[in-house]
Queue: 2 jobs
Job 1
Amino acid sequence: MSAVPRSVVIVDDDVAFRDLIRRLLTVQDLVVVADVGTVAEALAAAESLRPDAVLVDVGLPDGDGIELAGRLSRMDRAPRVVLTSTDPAAADGTAISRSGAVGFLPKDELAGDALRQMLVGD
């Protein structure tokens, strides 16, 4: 694992899911600096907190997580963006690539090492 803690913002409209992922990432030596439920909150958190990474649900109440990933990826100090969804087919390779996200993981696969590797890049 990385010696330097990495900061992460979680973006999902399900509060229980955000709490679960916060605990999972904390155990993996990542620092969750915010967990938010909307596109607007995600953009504000990313701008003010400058996280190293953002975990983004594809389906959000006020917008599309794939479009949010694109906006985050174009920021001056762009975080690594990982997309997720309960639907394993929610984001295809073309959409992921176009958005600037480093990848997509279905929510039922987030407990493994793949999520940390995508968020941290090591």
Note: The chain has a mean pLDDT of 92.
Job 2
Amino acid sequence: MKIGEKIVRIVSALDLHVIDTIRKKREDLKISQAALSVDMDFSEKLIGSIENPSISTKYSLRHINLVAKALDCNISDFFPPSGHLKDDLLRITVEKKKTIDENGKEKIIPVIIERVSLTKEETQEYNKSKTKS
């Protein structure tokens, strides 16, 4: 992706919630993506790939357990407190933007600029497209 370029993806609202919640917890604890990846016994790039909204990598249940161990918290901390989310699937628009990091260096990051819930009909079409043999 180039700066300003946008991509649109369909993602699970729950996957996105878990990714966002783990990112916030990791940042609150001042743990880098690479450090968390290594603490989980994976390559340094795993968490960076999962947290990049332009890539379809996501947490598995195994990953979530390993993150909870590494961050010394409960698995349930990463899931919605209500027990479920209203939305199932979201259409997200991701754009590459310039930003300044904590050291004053310019960097380019993918940012979700829009999240829209899929309608029931769109969800049914999406599900059909994923189950075709």
Note: Residues 13-28 form the longest helix (16 residues).
